[in-house]
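Figure S7 source data.
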Amino acid sequence: MILVTGAKGQLGGEVCSRLKQTNKAVLGIDKDDLDLTDAKAVAAFFAAHADIDAVIHCAAYTAVDKAEDDPALCFAVNRDATETLARRCGDTIKLLYVSTDYVFGTDDDRYHETTDEKHPLSVYGASKSEGEDAVRKHCSRHFIVRTSWVFGNKDTNFIATMLRLSETHDTLSVVADQVGSPTDARDLAALLCEMIGTDAFGVYHATNEGVCSWYELACEVFRLAGKNVRVLPVTTAQYGAKAKRPLNSRLSKRSLDDAGFQRLRPWREAVAEYVRSLTERTQ
Ligand SMILES: NC(=O)c1ccc[n+]([C@@H]2O[C@H](COP(=O)([O-])OP(=O)(O)OC[C@H]3O[C@@H](n4cnc5c(N)ncnc54)[C@H](OP(=O)(O)O)[C@@H]3O)[C@@H](O)[C@H]2O)c1
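C-alpha cells for the predicted NAP complex:
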C-alpha cells in the first residue's frame, strides 16, 4: 500500500490519480484525515495501517511569504512532521520526499547539481531543507525530489493567478530576474509514481525541461490564452515580496539521467496544455 500525504494538494491529488490509473493500492490523506504535526496520531495511524510499504510525502506548508510571519508552523509541518514520518519509515518503508528549488539561494546562472551545498534564503526554504536532512538521517530507503514552480489543480498557482488577474487588469508587473522551470503537477506525478516502484534511492531534480523567468512565463500564458495584457518586467527588489527567493532556480537533471529516468517534457508544451484546459473550463 502506498500512502500519499497532501492528497488534496496540487501534486498529491495528481499522484493519487496516477497511482489509481495504474491499479496500485493507494491511500491518500490530507490534514483533515491526519494532522502530520501530531506525532502520536501519526504513530497510531501507522499502527493501524501495517500494510503501508511506501510513502509519497507531498504534504507541506507551502505559503512562502506567510511563512516569514509564522515560522513555527512552517517548521512544524515541513521539518518536524517530515522527521516523524521518516522515523516511522526507518529501514523498512520507502519514503519519497518532495522538496524545492528554494533550498538553493545563489544568483549565478549555473545549473544546481543535486550535490550542491544548500543555501536557503527564506523560512520556507530552510524548513524544506531541514526536512530533507531529517529524511536522510532517519530513513534509509529514501528519495528526495526537488521540483519548482508547480502548476496543477490549485487556483493560486502562478498561471491560474495570471489568468485571473487578466480579467481585471490590462497591465501587470512581473518579476524578470528569477529564472527557473515551470512544472506540470501531472508530469511530475507520473515520474514520482514510477520512481517509488524502484530501489533507485537518492536525490533528484525534476521539472519540465527548459528555463524561463516569471516574466517570460506570464507573457507566454497571455499569448496562449489570447489575452491582451501589457506585462512590465520588474526586478525582485522592485516587486518586494516578503520572503527572499533565489534568482537562480536552474536545476540539473544529471542524477535523473544517470538513474535511467526520463526527463519531463518541455515546459512550453505542458503550459500550453494547461492553459488550454483552464480556458476551456471557463468558456
Ligand atoms: N507549489 C510549488 O510551486 C512547489 C515548488 C517546489 C516544491 N514544492 C513542493 O511540492 C510539494 C507539493 O506542493 P503542492 O503545490 O502540491 O502544495 P499544496 O497544494 O499546498 O498541498 C499541500 C497539502 O499539504 C497539506 N498539509 C499542510 N499541512 C499539513 C499537516 N499539518 N498535515 C497534513 N497535511 C498538511 C495541505 O492542506 P491545507 O491546504 O489544508 O493546509 C495541502 O493539501 C510540497 O512538498 C512543496 O513543498 C511545491
